[in-house]
Amino acid sequence: MRAGACENSLWRNTANRGSRPLKLVPGLGLIATSIRTLAPVRLYRPSTGEQIARILAGETERPTLVAGGTDLCAQFNDGLAPRSLVALDRVAALQRIERLDGEIRIGSGVTHAAGRSDPLINRYLDGFAAAWGAIANVRVRFRATIGGNLMALRPRYEMSAILDALDAMLCFRTADRVASLAPGDLWNSRAPARSFLQYVSVPAGDDFIGFRYDRSLRPVMTLAVCMRRSGGVLSARVVIATEMLSPIALVLPRGPSLQDLKAMDYASAAAAALPEHYADQNASNWYLRRVTASLLHRQLKDLGQCLTTTH
Amino acid sequence: MSDDDALTDDTEALETVELTLRVNGKRTKIVVPSAISLLELLRDRLNLRGTKLACSRAVCGSCTVLIDGHPAASCALFAFQADGADIVTIEGLADKDEALHPVQDAFRKFSAFQCGYCTSGMILLAKALLDHDPAPSRATVVEWMSSGVCRCTGYNLIVEAVLSAASEMRRTTR
After folding, report:
1. Which of A35, A44, A141, A196 to mutate to test the interface with B (most CBs of B within 10 A)?
2. Which of B8, B101, B106, B110 is 20 to 30 Å from A62 at the Cα level?
């Protein structure tokens, strides 16, 4: 039994009835652990990023960061039993969206609902707001944050694939340094020790043409594509993900650029670039290639129209 | 993003926290343990038992309350996350003369419930929708209400009730 579990309400209620107390073993107990079964915790309520970094540096055991908190309850069900919490909701800088040097910087505490309706995102990143507003459900969208979605590291959460296609970078901060990671790096290397995600930076310069996200086949697969034009050359970054597998970017071999190929040929080439090992119990590699070609063709045609009307 | 705010004492760890909230229009000040959920605060401390606990992981919607007008799963929120907020539970929906809210009335007329366990969450979800969009399409109602789970009704009666309430609310505010 974990230390302090006698403080939880089930234990108290049982003890009050004078019967033999129930033993709660995370993962083996009568009920899953939840907020209701947490032992008492220490709560920090910082109001600046510097304070968060200082708290993280000072605690011997890493505290659990609480932004929207919607994924935390699932983590409690999985056995997470924090000794301390750091509430991020008072840090105004984490809830800000701003445009700097051709980038849109999105604070890690921005909720899905706020991102969906933000004027900067709607103005400079065509297609991103619509994708952001479609994930999760209504109730979750008002609470859950972009940072929580990423840092939960659950393949079925969609922001990692979306941001990967958008060429975004994640900015982490510790007490003495700042480090940037690509969204895909989150799955391979952990964020710097004692750091927190400060903001997400999305390139939104003149090279940006449009972004499209297809989740119509979810949970089998989702597909994100971002089209850019640099030095007169069109390029598309394509990322797919499944319910079980972390996102993967489809890297085409150097060759004809997007503008030299028909959309269907490009989509087929991108689908063929999907590594053979990429498959799960919901979809074979063959199936994923087929649907990738089909969905990508549709999205490229849509982005092509965007190209002719806006450029 | 820069942090130019001056450092204060916000790095001090708290075992308990004092909250100031407005619950169903009534200003409430209460000291609670740091890790208590909003659901526990409402049900066990404020005796508002209309908010139900089921899944404990923000999936089913039976614990839905409105926080600053937006639906939220109270089982999956710490009480401190609602500090300073305006909270509406099912008990706060009927008016002072205890006349039912139009959404409640529509649920009654359409028998949009059976066991009733999900109903308080569904009604609050519908109220938030109609406050946000007084004339929602059927597709919008389905999308919005799909964040609540009902094992009895098959959802059709709930959707009909929400559309009817929307129509009634538009008629009476004309």
Report:
1. A35
2. B8
| ipTM over 0.85 threshold | yes
Residues of B in contact with A42 (CB under 8 A): 13-15, 34
Question: Does A78 lie at the interface with B, CB-CB under 8 angstroms?
Answer: no
**Cβ–Cβ below 8 Å for B3 and A43:** no
C-alpha to C-alpha distance for A284 and A279, rounded to whole angstroms = 5
B40 and B69 both lie in a single domain: yes
Asked whether the beta carbons of residue A98 and residue B1 sit closer than 8 angstroms, the reply is yes
What is the mean pLDDT of the segment spanning B142-150?
94
Quick one: B109 and B84 in the same domain? no
Dist. CA A263–CA A238, nearest whole Å:
13
CB contact under 8 A, B76 and A138: no
Task: Specify whether domain A208-310 bears CATH 3.40.50.720.
Answer: no
Which range marks the domain in which residue B78 is found? 16-92
Give the strands of the sheet with A97-100, arranged side by side. Answer: A97-100, A103-107, A196-203, A169-173, A178-181
pLDDT band at B174 (very low <50, low <70, confident <90, very high): low
When the pLDDT of each residue in chain B is averaged and rounded to a whole number, the result is 91
Domain count, chain B: 2
Identify how many contiguous H helices and E strands chain B contains and give both numbers: 5, 5
pLDDT of residue A9: 39
> Could you count the other beta carbons within 10 Å of the beta carbon of residue A123?
12
> Six-digit token pair at A203?
């390139």
Q: Which of A35, A93, A137 is nearest residue B35 as measured by Cβ atoms?
A: A35
Separation of alpha carbons B77 and B133, rounded Å: 26
Q: Name the residue among B7, B15, B144 with its Cβ closest to that of A48.
A: B7
- Consecutive sets of 10 residues in chain A, 311 residues long: mean pLDDT of each? 39 38 51 74 94 92 92 87 94 97 97 97 96 94 96 94 97 94 88 93 95 95 92 88 94 65 85 94 96 94 72 46
Taking the C-alpha atoms of residue B6 and residue B13, their distance in angstroms, rounded to an integer, is 19
pLDDT digits 0-9 by tens, B12-21: 778 899 999 9
Q: A266: left (phi > 0), else alpha (psi -120 to 50), else beta?
A: alpha
Size of interface A-B (CB pairs under 8 A): 136
Fold adopted by A96-203: 3.30.465
pTM of the model: 0.88
Instruction: Give the per-residue pLDDT at A18.
Output: 37
Contact B75 A34 (CB under 8 A): yes
| Shortest Cα–Cα distance, B16 to chain A (Å) | 8
Same domain, B76 and B25: yes
